[in-house]
Batch of 4 targets.
Target 1
Amino acid sequence: MYKVFVNEKKLLLSKQPENIEKKLSYEGSTTLEIALDLLENTSTEELNIFGDNIEVIWQEFQNLFRIVEAAGGIVSNSLGEILFIKRLGKWDLPKGKMEKGESREESAIREIEEETNLSNVELGEFINTTYHIYIERNGDKILKCTHWFAMNFQGEDTSKPQIEEGITEVAWKNTSQIESEVFQNTFKNIKLILKEFWNKAK
């Protein structure tokens, strides 16, 4: 199954129909275009496209966009707190576009160190990839694929925001702060990857 966010609305691509508001049986790329139109231009909050060959559906879906790959991390300290950045008034996790020739792991570490000013962040296991769609100013439709890693930090806390990237704050948050503060003011993809991270840590 693939979960893609379109303006914070959820599109599920799956083999079997899911128990959500609106479902469409996959009948070619037109089905995908109809689904995107419904999510972008109507009050539909979530939509499921289902069909037997999920990988064919996913490939057809990707063909509608220019793919941008990014990487980032969920950085934990010795207190079990997680590192967040604030950008455009919303809490987010440090991440950014992969550079040519970089591995996902290299990109995730570089972006975290650039955006938060931490050094010697220790790479942990891969968590998952999240997907969201946006439109660039030139009209290009982008499918952004962000690869997330668990990370640890044990050194001296030198964290500060990368102002030139529009980051206004860097903060460590414990679980109760994440649920009371971050979850009230973040993106659905961020909630999704944090919940996966916690489930893997159990």
Target 2
Amino acid sequence: MNQSIDFNERPFVVIWENTRACDLACVHCRAAAQPKRSQFELTTEEGFTLIDQIAELGPRVFVITGGDPLKREDTYDMIHYAKTRGLEPALTPSATPLLTAAAVSRMKRHGLARLAVSLDASVPELHDAFRRVPGSFNITLQAVRAAKSEGIPVQINTTVTRRTIDDLPSMVELLTELEIAMWSVFFLVPTGRGKRGDLVTPETIEHLFGFLYDTTKKAPFAVRTTEAKHYRRYMLQRIALESGQNINDLRDKTTGLIDASTLFLQHGPRSMPLGVQAQRGAVSRAPRGVNEGKGFVFISHIGDVYPSGFLPLKAGNVKHESLGDIYRSSDLFVSLRDSTNLKGKCGRCEFRELCGGSRARAWSMTGDVFESDPLCSYQPRVA
């Protein structure tokens, strides 16, 4: 599990949005999902063909997402087929009446390796208002408990916005009670239904990084961030400060083709900032800083291929080209893997290989995919 991955050849993470249909209407939804399925979705057979191509790439993490993947009855067959092809499929269903204990049990029988569900607040009133469907909070907790009874590791995804940030300490308490495997804290990208007015400030994010870092030391679950690549820089700074090590030496160790998060694990068993999947007794970790198009690829419900679900720049379509060819050779993906293309302070930052900033947020807020991440307050120490 700790062998190096050449991100020019294959991704660490593959996410397939098999539908955009969803019965929720979340205020931040990337996909701006709708209740009905599209007639242009990949068919079951096309889905199997896609899974074959994903298996050939051999990612460490494979996620079926949506919309709500439970809106497709064949999602269970997709889970099973992925398992037979040597993948460890994860699923991110929506908290609707489709997500029953029986559905979770069926997922387990079909080979699900991990369940990821969204929980944006520790109380029903705040969470349900965010998801815009009453009862979503209770359905989520029932699904988490059903997964626990089935022995399925659970990841909780929480979106950080002005609406939810003050509730995060209470979230830690709740997630501890739920005995989850990982907490993924998502920093909003204003795309789809996501609005700039919901963003927190760069300075607030820096303070929040401190809270997350402290949480890794005491919480019985792993903590990772999504669309906050600069948390890697923050953690490295804290580790250097607390250990007395030279930060330049630590940085150089993490940017080579080694298992970077091994460094963090040496400073505490729960500190896995670069991790993508964590289970009790097993951790799947990225060897370098995964970023849009750099160890990460996203396939839409109609087969379009993107560097991530939050970066709507199309590189090709799996109905016409192989996923491997698009990932390895498309101009967009090749350019995103070249850090010399970064501009502004991201381009001159000494942590650009480890971090690289959110390319999705740069695109959504500046119109230039290579501009600096607008939510990073760090000032590079180099000219």
Target 3
Amino acid sequence: MGVKPAEEYLFLIFVTPVGPYFKGGFSTNPYVIIRSFDRSAPLGTGMYKVGGNYAASLRANALAHEKGYASEFYLDAKEKKYVDECGAANFFAIKGNTYVTPKSTSILPSITNDSLMQLARDLGMEVERRPIPEEELSTFEEAGACGTAAVISPISYLDDMETGQRYTFSADGKPGPVSTRLYNLLRNIQYGIEEDKHGWTTVVIE
């Protein structure tokens, strides 16, 4: 018995109904930057769907909840200068007519984020996947976390506890118009209400 990559794997899929990722459903939530923990190291396993990535975020997530936030927010593990991920979800932001999302070797590639980027292009928006320095957060009009369970979880504001800086993305506490449009469009495609132009859905018949 030893530790090495397996030569054979058993691939399992569990299917179950789920509710909204956050109790409020599609509504804004506050996030907090936590520098005392890293979600994943550069060139580590962050870009793979492994259980250890979730385990690494549990203490930071508990700390965020204790302080009254919905979730923690990570900067890059190497320099603590660039946006990385929102807890267990990808980050995206809206600046004018541009959809912006981070590029990093420690971020898990998200099918939901890829889908939202395509829908943004369909709506005539520019899409940028690139490093995002923390100071650029103040220039975004909307921001959110995106992933399988939540689809989009809009961020109301993001606090940096070390500097006291607050980045506000929703002045009235409601999801922004672009996030709302993208959310509704993707959900409608998933439910067969909107036309699936990209062949994302598959009808499964017993």
Target 4
Amino acid sequence: MLAPKRIIIVLLIALLSLLTGWGLWLKHSDSHSDALWQIVSESCLPEQRQHHNPSPCRRVSVAQGYAVLKDRNGLLQFLLLPLEKISGTESPLLLKPETPDFFALAWKARHYMAERLGQPIDERVYSLAINSRWGRTQNQLHIHISCLRPDIRRQLDSLAPTLNQQWQTHQLSGHAYHIRVVADDDPAAVSPFIRIAQELPGARQNMGSYSIAEVAAGPDSKLLLVIKRNWLLLNPGSAEELQDHSCALLTEPGPHLAARQRN
């Protein structure tokens, strides 16, 4: 058995190694953290304005203030990004009512996945996710449009009878998520950013620590899933962990390929 002093030394060395590795990772990620912004601002937007061609983006909507870009990871994954410089969930612009609801725009853009696949995709396969300030590598807001993990879909389906428009906490992928149902026809609907700031205690002052996902719940509703960064639990706040960029759900038995998607 190691003596107490040796145990302390080993723990200190391990902690130093962890901090050193984390620092090197941050330095590396910072050097590439504007890559998405450069693609949108220096390529997609100018090409759209000058030649009516959004390349390398799939779409640029100047009127609505967003671009859709095929992500390099995953056969079907796309990203929705603002045309304005917005860093991420911590941006105060996201809490202004006049700011576009980028989640709603991302949900409407899900059809690019089906177009790329070449056949319809059941809505239960789709998922949206944005990572927290600490769970991302890019400093331009981007919403991942991709497939939901099969095990997460099954877990949410099993929870469905108990979920409603009140926030509940459940363990998903080993982390605590706040979950609630959001009706598509809610007359008081607001963006997920505003909803979280209004409804989760303390969130407004610490929005950068929150990561958000959205998936289909039923014919006329979605599930909003929110995770908060927690360093003590080694949780950086990355709802993207609920997604499967290989889209295994598409190969599982079921109606995922045959169902018609809603607008």
